[in-house]
């Protein structure tokens, strides 16, 4: 049986559902957001694989393309680091049984896909057989069924090699003159980017009304002149982005990121930061659940920075490690 090509459109794709809304929020609020449709556009790369979500009758009801060779998947929780693939088409009882992250999925140079369970308090099963948390990675083949919590997915690898993937990625990153910040989705830069000017700090955030439009907003700052408005992101990413979330600054011949929001977290390589932080070529920046790739002139075609799966937290131990003074 021949595998389908990776650019074959799946019958159902949750990405098409993420931006629709039955309400006109601009009308209800009394002010409008500047939504760039490119931020929710289809991915620029070919998918390496697809997870097809199944219902109780094992009928596909949604599809999640995978564009990166090594991804963390699950749900986003601000106390944990962002994940590459957000499984956002689930019902509440399914979402509550997902880890943050839940599993690590990787395409090896041999062409094999492997999965590692990361969530100690909720099950991961391969073809109905439980996978122990942090046990040796298990191979996943075409047609295998992967159960994360209480939701089952059919795994479909595509006919694209790691070399083909890298060539597509190189072309995408070479499509602009660095430095630039690329939006990432499902494990790889997805296409949209914003150029970086060392002479002008870039503020990242989303549209907000002028001062005085909302109650107690008389002292809100005006919108910066050099601003990347991320209001057009799918809601699963947009809702965790603050009005003024972070600022990129070039000083002392290095790029720095400065978190501006006290409510929504900023991450560098999945680690939360609270102070201005020096950036390295190829760093991954997280604004809530949205991820970005920093492309600098020294890395026109980069291998992706390895993101180590985090140590799972066993909540039965007491307080989270980050809040335990004895750790």
Query: Cα distance, first to last residue?
Result: 52 Å
The biggest sheet amounts to: 6 strands, antiparallel
How many helical elements?
4
Report strand %: 25-35%
What does this protein structure show overall?
The protein is mainly beta and 327 residues long. Among the domains are: 47-157, Sandwich (Tumour Suppressor Smad4); 176-212 and 222-299, Tumour Suppressor Smad4 (Sandwich), CATH 2.60.200.20. It has four helices and 22 strands. The strands form four sheets. It has a six-stranded antiparallel sheet, with no helix packed on it. A hairpin with a 2-residue loop joins β12 and β13 (188-195). It is globular, with a radius of gyration of 20 Å. The model is unreliable at 1-11, 14-19 and 315-325 (pLDDT under 50). Residues 314-327 have a biased composition (Basic and acidic residues). Pfam families: FHA. Residues 301-327 are annotated as: Disordered.
């Amino acid at each position: 049986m021949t595998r389908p090509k990776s650019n074959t459109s799946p019958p159902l794709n949750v990405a098409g559902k993420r931006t629709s809304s039955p309400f006109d929020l601009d009308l209800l609020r009394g002010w409008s957001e500047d939504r760039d449709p490119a931020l929710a556009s289809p991915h620029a790369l070919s998918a390496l694989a697809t997870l097809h979500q199944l219902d109780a009758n094992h009928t596909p009801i949604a599809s999640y393309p995978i564009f990166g060779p090594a991804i963390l998947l699950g749900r986003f929780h601000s106390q944990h680091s962002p994940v590459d693939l957000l499984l956002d088409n689930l019902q509440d009882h399914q979402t509550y049984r997902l880890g943050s992250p839940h599993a690590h999925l990787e395409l090896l140079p041999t062409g094999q896909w492997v999965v590692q369970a990361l969530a100690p308090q909720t099950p991961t099963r391969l073809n109905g057989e439980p996978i122990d948390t942090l046990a040796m990675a298990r191979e996943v083949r075409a047609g295998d069924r992967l159960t994360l919590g209480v939701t089952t997915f059919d795994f479909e690898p595509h006919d694209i090699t790691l070399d083909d993937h890298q060539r597509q990625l190189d072309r995408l990153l070479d499509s602009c003159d660095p430095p630039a910040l690329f939006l990432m989705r499902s494990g790889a830069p997805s296409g949209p980017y914003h150029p970086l000017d060392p002479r002008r700090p870039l503020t990242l955030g989303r549209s907000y009304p002028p001062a005085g439009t909302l109650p107690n907003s008389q002292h809100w700052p005006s919108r910066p002149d050099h601003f990347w408005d991320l209001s057009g992101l799918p809601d699963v990413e947009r809702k965790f982005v603050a009005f003024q979330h972070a600022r990129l600054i070039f000083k002392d011949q290095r790029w720095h990121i400065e978190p501006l929001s006290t409510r929504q977290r900023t991450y560098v390589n999945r680690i939360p930061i609270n102070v201005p932080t020096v950036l390295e070529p190829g760093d991954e920046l997280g604004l809530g659940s949205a991820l970005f790739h920093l492309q600098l002139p020294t890395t026109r075609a980069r291998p992706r920075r390895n993101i180590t799966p985090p140590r799972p937290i066993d909540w039965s131990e007491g307080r989270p490690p980050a809040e335990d003074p004895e750790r």
